[in-house]
Structures are given as C-alpha cells and as structure tokens.
Amino acid sequence: MKDAQGRKAVANGFDFSQGLAGLNADEAALVRRREKVLGTMGPLFYDRPLHVVAGTGTHLLGADGEDYLDCYNNVACVGHSNPHVRQAVADQLGRQNTHSRYLQDEVLDYAERLVATLPDAIDHVAFTNSGSESNDLALRMARVATGHMGVVVTQGAYHGITSLVASVSPSFGTGLPLAPFLATVRVDDALHGADGADASADAAWAVLGPRFKQAFDALEHGGYGVSCVLIDEAMSSDGILPGACGWIARLADAVHARGGLLVSDEVQAGFGRMGGVLWGFQRHGADADIVTMGKPMGNGIPVGGVAYKHPIGDVFASCTRYFNTFGGNPVSMRAAGAVMDEIERLGLVAHAQAMGDRLAEGLRGILRGHARFGGLRHAGLFLGIDVTDGAARPDGAAARAVVNALRDDGHVLISAAGPGDAVLKVRPPLVFDDSDAARLLDAMQRICDSGLMDR
Ligand code: PMP
Q: Distance from the CA of 304 to the center of ligand 1, in angstroms?
C-alpha cells in the first residue's frame, strides 16, 4: 500500500501528504520540524500525531495535558519511568560504563541470571543493542555452525533492519529484493479458525509441515542448504498468530532433520509477553538452538541478546569473532537486571496470562455481534483483533479508523498489524492492571456504540 505521495504506507502511519489541518499549533510545528530534519523515512503514528512529554506505569502524558493509556508498548514492559530501573541505571552511570573487554561483574551477573531462565542446553549468551543486531548475529552463527546459507521465515515476517536481516523480512515488501537464499512459508491460514480460536497443533502441522518441507527442499535444490528457520513466536507482523502450543516443537524437529537450527526470535514474545512462560518457544516445548532478544529487555535502555547452545558459539569462535562496543555494557546490564527483578517481584509472567485472558474475554464480549469484528486471538498480553469489511475480508481502512478513534476519544493507544494492516494490535506494558483494562473496554464499548464496528 502507498500513501498519497507514493511512499510505502505504514500501519497507523501519519500521511505526510495529508497536510497539517486538524493539528494544533504545537503538533503542526513539531511535524514540520521533524519532516525537515528527519525526513519521512521513519513512521510517525496516528492521523493526528501524539506529542508525549512524560510517562508513568501504563500511562503517557500528552503535551495537551491529557492522560493517555498506553496499550501498545512492549518495550516499557515493567512500566514507563520504572523507579527500580531508573535507580539501577543512575547508580551504574555514576560508577563506570566501559566496554566488555575488561573484567566486569555486571555483564556476568546478568548473563548467569539470563541463561538460568533457559533450558540447560542453551548455556551461553552474547549481548547486542537491539533485536536487529541479535537476529543478524544469530543468522551468521547459524551459517557458520551448519555450513549452510538458506533461511526460512514466515510469509509476513519482520526481523529487523540490518541488510542481512531486512533481506529475510518479507514484511518490508518488494522495494528492495529479498535474499536469494530465503524461502517463506504462509502460516496465517493454518493457526486459527475463523473466530480466532486456536487450531490444534496436529491440525496446524498437517497444513504447515508440507509447506516447511517444500521450503527446505527449495533451499536444498537451490544449493543453499538449510541454516535455520528464524521464527517470531508471536507471529506479530503476520497478524498476531500465537496459535496452539506444540507445532513449533515439530518444526524444530523438521529443521534439525535437515541439518539446520531453530532460531527463536523472542524480541516480541520474550520476557513473559505470551503469559505463563518467560519465552515463547517454551509454550511449544520446542528445542530451540538460538534465542534472540531485544525490546523489553532493558525497559527502554537499548539492549539485546543472543542465547545459544555453546557448540554453535565454539564453531563461530574457531573461524571468526564477535565484539560489539556497547553490547553488554554495565549500564545496559544493570537495566536488564532491574527489569528481571521487577518481572519476578510483580509476578508478571503469571499476571500476563491471567490479565490477557480477562482482557480477551472482555473485548470479545463487547465486539461479538458487530459486523466488522472478524475474531480475536491472543496469548498473554498480546492480542490481535481482525477488522473486516463485514464480509470477512480484511479492512485496513476500518482498522485505522478504530485506532484513531480510540486515540482521539478514549485517549487509548493501540495500533494495527498484519495483512492489509487490518488487525488491531493490543500489546500493553506487562504491568497493565484491572483499572487499565476497564478503561480500554469502556473505550471499545463507545467505539461499538458509535457504529464504527458496523458501518
Ligand atoms: N524481531 C521482531 C519480531 C521484531 O518485532 C522486531 C522489532 N519490531 C525486531 C526483531 C527488531 O528489533 P529492533 O527494532 O530492536 O532492532
């Protein structure tokens, strides 16, 4: 999809060609400044962009003095301006923040703690500064360890912005060519029924097993072999398809049988987002080889990680090396440790499951019966709601209208994703509580009362 000036449209993106009508003087001035110096390469959310000046917990304060409920932020997983994270960062900044080529306690304290949350075999970790860097390193490690080049991802996958990772991210579209060593597999029609209910692992694998086989065959016939399947356990950009637990365990077996690895991209799914377990691959009981992390890891401090079975790293170390100037720096490590403290102290993994189930049930109750409601899927506090044209076809324009109405009328922030950007994406900080849920439900009720989900 393109905007009016022919740029690639972004879900819930401000259309710079729409002009500044409807914006107040402050917003219009900032949009102008932004366009002048940052250009239009990077998206800006909403028909009427939001000027944010502060945040606490699940709330953001607008420059207009209004309180906004943040239902879209998986980075601030333990809440905006979390005092414990702030304290840890400030304390470490006041001590030292050098690189990892010296002996330091902070990186070791966090690394030991992190690998302790993973299966015994995933016993080593390297640190990065973003999810993209994590996936980039994971792909290089998988290549070296297997001696193969081929990569398999889902049809709508997004894995990040480095040249290598972008070349295996079909959600960017065809503006830049995808890698010749990439095979993609469609999953959006196999994981859920029409009402959003999970397909069983057996039913899902009956459809997906042959598709992955075909992808592996194509890479082998092309001479690339299979280095890995790189998979976002939340299937976020495919339209939020958490699916039934179990089928990814079979995928792991299938890729192992081809001599490849399973790389679990936990940038979205990790740190408890899916509820009940800390890591998305654990929902499936899958034998992952490499686990990549980012976004919520530092609650806004840039930090990512690549955890792996150590033989993979041993092969890598025997022929090349990994050093990253900021990776594993003490400030990032202290932030990440403080996030882990908060996840444990507040019981956020169990909370995400219970709260996500309650929220999903509440939203279904409100949306059911409205013509444009096409079903709701969720795991933990990651929810996707299909908006249709009333005849089961995805309707991105209608989803966009709901996203903007929630922002304007309810001061509730969500966004859209998936095919045609027609899936409402609800993914609040994990500290989202019952009063926040009540506010979101109330706002959605008003959207439905206004007729927006029927027209
Ligand atoms: N993997 C997934 C599944 C993601 O959603 C993202 C970011 N949206 C990334 C990787 C890239 O992370 P980052 O933006 O931190 O580089």
A: 10
Say whether pLDDT at 1 is over 70: no
Ligand 1 atom closest to Cα of residue 132: 16
Residue 265 Cβ contacting ligand 1 at under 6 Å: yes
Q: Which residue has the tokens 């980075």?
A: 75
State residue 10's pLDDT score: 81
Question: Ligand 1 within 6 A of 135 CB?
Answer: yes
Helices marked H in 147-236 = 163-166, 201-221
Report residue 270 CA to chain centroid gap. Answer: 9
Tell me if 232 CB under 6 Å of ligand 1: yes
pLDDT of residue 195: 77
Closest CA relative to residue 58, chosen from 413, 338, 384, 346: 413
Give the residue, by CA position, lying nearest to ligand 1 atom 1: 159
Mean pLDDT across 315-342 = 97
Whether the pLDDT of residue 86 is over 80: the answer is: yes
Report which protein residue has its CA nearest ligand 1's atom 13.
Answer: 131
Beta strands in 109-233 (DSSP E): 122-128, 150-154, 182-185, 226-232
264 alpha carbon – ligand 1 mean position (Å): 12
Helical pair 330-345 and 348-367, crossing angle rounded to 10 deg: 70
Higher pLDDT: 399 or 9? It is: 399
Question: How many angstroms separate the alpha carbon of residue 131 from the centre of ligand 1?
Answer: 5
Q: Which of the residue ranges 19-33, 53-67, 191-205, 242-256 would you say has the lowest mean pLDDT?
A: 191-205
Q: How far is the CA of 160 from the centre of ligand 1 (A)?
A: 5
Q: State the Cα–Cα distance between residues 332 and 100, nearest whole angstrom.
A: 12
